[in-house]
Amino acid sequence: MVGFAACGEDDIQATTSLGSVELTIQGELQGEELALESNTYDAAGAAEGFRLTRLSFFLSDLRLVEVKDGQSLETPLADVAYFNLGPSGLDSEVFDTIPAGDYTSLRFNFGLTPEQDMTTPSDYATTHPLGESAEYWHDWESYIFTKIEGKSDNNADGVERFDDSFVFHIGVSAENARPGEIAIDMPVRGGSNDLVLDFDVATLMQLNTANEIPLTQFVHGGPLTSQIPTSAVSALSAAEQ
Ligand SMILES: [Ca+2]
Question: What does the pLDDT average to over 20-44?
Fold first, then answer.
């Protein structure tokens, strides 16, 4: 009977004021949902187009912001989340026990915090987002904040060949993480709640601009280590409901 005694009104209130948030990130490119492996996309630096084979990244220090009495109040959503977009260009993560509220923006870092980046995968269970050794670069003593991989067709012969590959593994240091803030219209209530962000891959890769990432190269350093996280923040926005 102890269980009944504990089930007062305060407990019911506490239970109903927490919900779960499923954060989905949907890649988009040239006006359509991103398709990894299968679709060919245009770029200035690829004569007959390119395909993406991998797009993965870490977001950290995710916070929901609610404005009350003119004050911005932050509610933690997650310390870190890892997204690895599937063939249909999306991935989702679920965060539990999030307080109810009427949230109007999402704050985050693209990449990891300095504290997180000082750790290594051996500090975590393999099920933790930071426990995956393939996402850590020992020579940098840093995680790989994002992986962008694909192949390009630079042989203008009308035949799909995709003889060239590109690999961008970006990280090196927590200094290359970038903060972002996205306006959202996000009431969180008890039960499950959905938040969908669009990830504009043309902005991420700066396609058809002077800063287009080179679609024949393997890059693990240099100017792109700051350009790509900056572009990634610009590429994220709330999906239209
Ligand atoms: Ca060709």
Answer: 96
